[in-house]
Amino acid sequence: xxLGLLWILLPLVVGYLxxxxxxxxxxxxxxxxxxxxxxILFLMGLGLGxxxxxxxQLSRIGTTALTLFAIISPLNLAVLAWLGRYRFARVERIExxxxxxxxxxxxxxxxxxxxxxxxxxxxxxxxxxxxxxxHPAAAAETLATWALYVLxxxxxxxxxxxxxxxxxxxxxxxxxxxxxxxxxxxxxxGLIAAPLLSLPWNHGMAMAAGFGWYSLSGILIGDQLGPVxxxxxxxxxxxxxxxxxxxxxxxxxRAVPLAVGYSGATSMDFTLPVIQQYGxxxxxxxxxxxxxxxxxxxxxxxxxxxxx
Length: 308
Known about the structure:
Elements: H1 2-16, H2 23-49, H3 54-83, H4 105-131, H5 137-160, H6 166-170, H7 173-196, H8 201-207, H9 214-225, H10 227-251, H11 256-262, H12 272-279, H13 284-306
Helix pairs in contact: 1-5, 2-4, 2-5, 3-7, 3-10, 3-11, 4-10, 7-8, 7-11, 7-13, 8-13, 9-10, 9-13, 10-11
């Protein structure tokens, strides 16, 4: 677990150590970050579309996943919206480095729909390749991982040349508050969902402890509670990540805790590029801190809850 987190943070650190002075290189990095968002989303959709018996799995576990999602998401959003009312939740914008102010909500929705469309295109292509007898899921996951490492290094370069100090990145009060809010509201949601799903209280909380890290939650829950509940945990957290891609462009400029916090553990990796693209470089430290803390907490918490 710690080694995996190190591999995520290492490209950011390496990128942060590289000083840049040429404005053309800086603009090229900005363009590379924006383009990489769509590449990673397409590869994510490709891997999802190439899953074996995807429709069959959805029919068996859809009700469980939908129940979890319908309870966890409103509680998370309510707590994060409440947190956003406090003064310390405001993010100071960095002149000349942040994304331009968002337009009306239809313009933001257009960006959200474009992101969702890229994922859908990947799903369709992945399903078509799977039907042709090829199995692209492993290759897509590998490519997405390496693309993510490159992307995080580029974001590290942006951080170094944005005027943000290392202390601002590592010690971020808002990021800590967001992580605590997501953790507490998710655990309450797990307790509420458990009797509705005829599960023990600790199993309900364990299924809510993925915080959007669908690859981890599916494996841990499936190993302990069987493939049906493992699949439900997977799709619940996957749905969270996909909805986060829609919420970030809509809310990041006026409700940073809501947009960053709903991204959960993925705010330090897969949703980080979208947060940076629509919220600006000043939102990146908040996302890294909250995502790191939730990623660090999720595996031991899940295993602890399943050990009863």
